[in-house]
Amino acid sequence: MSSTESPSVPAASVLPRVAPVRVGEGERIRSVGLPGVTLSVRSRPPAREGLPAALFVHGLGGSSQNWSSLMAELDGVVDGEAVDLPGFGDSPPPDDGNYSVTGHARAVIRYLDACGRGPVHLFGNSLGGAVATRVAAVRPDLVRTLTLISPALPELRIQRTAVPTGLLGVPGIAALFTRLTREWTAEQRVRGVLGLCYGDPAQVSPEAFRHAVDELERRLQLPYFWDAMARSARGIVDAYTLGGQHGLWRQAERVLAPTLLIYGGRDQLVGCRMARKATRAFRDNRLLTLPEAGHVAMMEYPQVVAAAFRDLLAESREQEGAPDTGSAADAGS
């Protein structure tokens, strides 16, 4: 199917702005030991048995908590789980210290193979979008549909606002940055991240902001925090320069799963202009652009992202000739 931009999406000025749900509400977390890696997995008890499985993969510096709002919106639509990539959230570093896109993808594949939930509806944001693309390309048997929100796929002209993040991957820069910002408070750091990632940081509730500060304070105490950040950033840079059949754009062309592409018009890390290239690369895709969204549309506009996914789900079921058991009515919308 060729790419189409959804005509049913209202102007961004009238999109519902939903404050993030209280993290932990209705959620549970468990630790899963796998060969070479231990992953923390966040989930919600499924609304009923028989729901299709979904897996959510966060971006650089994020965690499974980034998906809490969207997982709540999709309650009754999918049986969702979100992973903390190695070295992030509550997951410890990988045994081999491999934070490359391939290393993260390998961890996701190991989890899906071990839990036997595949094929899943796979979601990825930013770094997680690159990871999900690689998983879908090399293990199509594990992926039913693919939803990519501002995926970190190679850009020839990097936005200036994204350069500092990329520089974290340069050896020594993370240590230098740590020294230069030693006096910064967690509140200052969180405000900077929100300003970079949100189209409108003002929509973040005071409760969500306080939780983000508390979580950052906890993670800054981890001895591997900056190492995981720096090595993962380096992994993205390396993936950008990798050519041939292992290049991310080449792998995007190999993805067979129906794909939903979501880009934000105010994204300061992944240029919205990349949407055009993405629609040419992914063979069976649908495009949703949100002019007022930033880098984390699933946190800014979870209702809209959920509606777009439900449309993708209905289309994929029609193509498969299966009954649509996850309709909008079932989801309470």
From TrEMBL:
UniProt key word Hydrolase: yes
Record-linked InterPro entries: AB_hydrolase_1 (IPR000073), AB_hydrolase_fold (IPR029058), AB_hydrolase_sf (IPR050266)
Ranges for domain AB hydrolase-1: 55-308
Gene3D superfamilies: alpha/beta hydrolase (3.40.50.1820)
UniProt keywords, alphabetically: Hydrolase
Domain of life: Bacteria
Cellular component GO terms held in the UniProt record: membrane
GO terms of molecular function: monoacylglycerol lipase activity
Pfam families in the record: Abhydrolase_6
GO biological process terms on file: acylglycerol catabolic process
UniProt-listed PANTHER family: MONOACYLGLYCEROL LIPASE, MONOACYLGLYCEROL LIPASE ABHD6
Name by which UniProt lists this protein: Hydrolase
Species in which this protein is naturally found: Streptomyces bungoensis
